[in-house]
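fyi for ur records
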Amino acid sequence: MKINSDIDVVYNISKKDFEKQYLIPQKPVVIKGLIENEIAGKLWTIDHFKKTMGDLMVDVYDNGLKKDGSAFTSADLKMRFDDFLSVIEKDEHTGLRMFLFNLFKYNPELKKEFPCPAIFKGILDNMGFTFFGGKDTSVRIHYDIDMSNVLHTQVYGRKRVVLIAPEYNELLYRLPLNTYSLVDIDKPDYEKYPGLRFVNASECILEAGDSIFMPSGYWHLMTYLNGGISVAYRKIGVTNKIRLQGVLNLGLFLPMDKLLGKLMGYKWQLFKEQIAAKRAEEALSMNQLAY
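which gave:
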């Protein structure tokens, strides 16, 4: 596996240029400056949310707990928001995080402090989600199940982002009916997952104020380098094929995966891993022939 630092970086960009150079060709890019003139860029810190929304009870996820083999996951515990923020602001390793959290629902004024950037406006303008995590917190590599394009802005703290194009789906041992993999791209096991040798990835470090555009179906691994806050806005896929895939993922494949998991238990997970390995072998053969 090769991890390159080859993602374009631009300082602001017009909507026309963004669509022509990145959205339509589905090419990732880091955009600087989208939040610098917004209230959130100056005001949103851990202390600010402690003072203004600290008594809110929130769902928290713990990376230290073993998860089942499903794209669907539920919260591990509930905490006061200020207690959670006190944990993640420490310069210490933690597995606690919050993701896809609609903070705007609890304080609509926040939407005025960081509305959907003009270059990304569309019918999903109101689908803004916040993410909070502590040092070293990450999530298994995956791509978003609804197949939306995503504009992910780091408001506070720093985050490492690794992106992999959809063309490597099978070489990443994607589990059937799911949009995630069990591989560890930072510590690739080439004996167990030989297909990883042919995967090319791109990485960057998001500083506070940076945004990254992740096209539909792009695999991503994000790791908080310290306590951080980010916001993601979504935009529907640029082709009917991508949109249909998102509908099927949500409306058919996810429910089917959950049902089979309940009926078959761990046998279903083993079966999925076998299928993923077989598909990877076929893709690996094609890649070796290409070389």
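Residues 2-290 form a domain with the Jelly Rolls fold (CATH 2.60.120.650). thats all i got for now
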